[in-house]
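Morning. Coffee machine broken again, so started the prediction first thing and wrote up yesterday's gels while waiting. Chain of 338 residues, entered below exactly as on the submission form.
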Amino acid sequence: MGLALEGRVFEERPRDTKGDHHQGSMSHGHVGPLETNRKALRVAIFVTASVMILEVVGGFLSNSLALLSDAGHMLTDLLALLLSLVALRLSTRPPSSTKTYGFYRTEILAALVNGTTLVLVSAYILYQAYQRLVVPQAVEVRTMLGVAALGLIANGVAAMAMAKASSENLNIRGAYLHVLGDAMSSLGVIVGGVVILLTAWYWVDPIISVLICLVILRGAVTLVKDSANILLEAVPKGLALGEVVRTLRGIQGVKDLHDVHIWTIGSGFFAMSAHVLVDDVLTSRAGDILREINRRLREDHGIVHTTIQFECRNCEEGIYCDASGACVAISRVNCHDR
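Came back before lunch.
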């Protein structure tokens, strides 16, 4: 229970309360998903490295700028996947005296880097597409088609391995978008190769590249936006601050609350802090209120880590915190003097 005593906040953690704090809820349930995510990333790294080497060789043999450009794209993706794997490993390291939340945010940083890289790579491909529209280049189509087909199959396998994890982890989603972009690039090369083989319309290749880039950019921009929102401590996507406030106001003994903060520490790991105005009650009763607050936040909104400061007189501050201001902590003496 957070009690404001002469300006200091003390925290009481009831022993019989399960899941009120993130240490207990995070220590067991994420072992399986983390190992699954690692395996998915290892598969993607192996596939991406193999296809990249294949496309470099095939690009030189066929004189295909599309394959060589895609190989450069895949080199960027390979580095991004390696970054994601490193971030995933770091995120499992325990908290320390200097990193009190541990390394959960490394996943978000990796996702931001991956999303930004996708945007830059797409811009480069768009530039190359413009160049090829101005000056079309002949290629050895059959070699290009064979290499692209192998790349499509390999990237499809990697994408399927990562599909489920990508919906649960922002870092994995960034890596998944890279692999999916590679698969789409291979598909575009195949379609363009078939059309060129039948018609000799070499301008088809850059047109397809533009379409692929537009799809990649849509996912990349969303990824960058989501990552930036997390780093800016924004309210997590899917949560509404007003609904959370209404939930807490409906708990018996809670009169009001202010200085409410809800943010994301890591993928699917939500935290909240708040000043809660309660009735002037005994400490034992306040403990019951705290347990009910944590239960409702966990079950109704998925918030697993909370820092609650109890007060018994309202503050001039509103629900939203102005960091430049301060809400005076109400001492126990003030409560009894009311």
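Residues 31-62 form the longest helix (32 residues). Going to sketch it on the whiteboard this afternoon.
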